[in-house]
Design a protein that fits this description.
73% of the residues lie in helices and 0% in strands. It is built from 14 helices and no strands. With 281 residues, it is mainly α. The longest helix has 32 residues. The radius of gyration is 23 Å and the shape is globular. It has one domain: MetI-like (MetI-like fold), CATH 1.10.3720.10.
Length: 281
């Protein structure tokens, strides 16, 4: 049954309006980054007059942006590298073995996604301070402490999504490999894990993006040396004069978004397959 002309026209109008509404903030960033500081402070103009590329150069010197970029890269990559293997193994154990209380475990894992993240902020801060005072383990203001914090959010989602995805992977393929002489570990790596790559890609992208753009915990649990990009962008506001270098801030915001956007586009096909296949058993 074909859609009517009026329905197609209405759908095109609605989608176009939503697209323009979504792209408008991005266009504001582009125009602001290509304008002078004085022009950004004045009335908004749809086009930069004149085009000024100086903000893309000065943004690296006025703020240690490269240092913040490396910090975010370290924390996001470490969170992904630690979260994904643990999530895969936990999901494999739940789907392939008779784990007592597996249903309760999955409900608890899913319930952690309902609780607002701000609820964990004070307990984690007190826990890190207590660990430093009791055994001299410095977690506050370190990469390790920030990665552990992000794992508390990334792991439940990873386990839940990968469990739902592995349930769609037939056990017969793995059992056939074991009949042919492969051990369980080899069968897992050569069959189940290979067939689960879309789900693994979806979890990897989610974990990386979550850690890359997180603000709340990074504002409390980082130091000057471990400050990440979302917090480092605040340095474009002069603490003495209270002046915000809007053109540099917008240029930096666009620049630091490029790695995430490019990475997502490269694995977009796997992410869509992973999310859609993991959503339905």
């Amino acid at each position: 049954m074909q859609d009517s002309f009026s329905y197609r026209a209405l759908r095109a109008v609605v989608l176009t309006a939503l697209g323009l509404f979504t792209l408008f903030p991005l266009w504001v960033l582009i125009v602001g980054s290509l304008s002078t500081a004085t022009a950004v402070s004045n009335v908004f103009s749809w086009l930069p007059q004149p085009v000024n590329w100086a903000s893309y150069v000065s943004m690296w010197t006025s703020v240690p942006l490269l240092h913040y970029l490396l910090n975010s890269l370290v924390v996001s990559t470490a969170s992904m590298v630690v979260s994904v293997p643990i999530g895969v193994l936990a999901a494999y154990a739940i789907t392939r073995y008779r784990v007592r209380g597996a249903g309760i475990i999955m409900r608890v894992v899913l319930a952690t996604q309902v609780v607002p993240g701000v609820v964990f902020l004070l307990p984690l801060f007190v826990l890190y301070a207590s660990a430093n005072k009791a055994i001299g383990l410095q977690l506050d203001g370190t990469y390790v402490g920030l990665v552990l914090t992000y794992l508390t959010f990334a792991l439940p989602f990873s386990i839940w999504l990968l469990t739902r995805y592995l349930e769609t992977v037939p056990k017969d393929v793995e059992e056939a490999a074991m009949v042919d002489g492969a051990g369980r570990l080899r069968a897992f790596f050569h069959t189940t894990l290979v067939m689960s790559l879309p789900g693994v890609a979806a979890v990897s992208v989610y974990t990386f993006i979550t850690a890359w753009g997180e603000v709340l915990f990074a504002s409390v649990l980082t130091s000057t040396q471990t400050r990440t990009l979302p917090i480092g962008l605040e340095d474009y506001e002069s603490p003495i004069a209270g002046v915000v270098h809007w053109n540099q801030l917008m240029a930096a915001s666009l620049t630091v978004s490029i790695p995430v956007v490019v990475g997502f586009l490269l694995v977009q096909r796997f992410v869509v397959r992973g999310l859609s296949s993991g959503a339905v058993k």
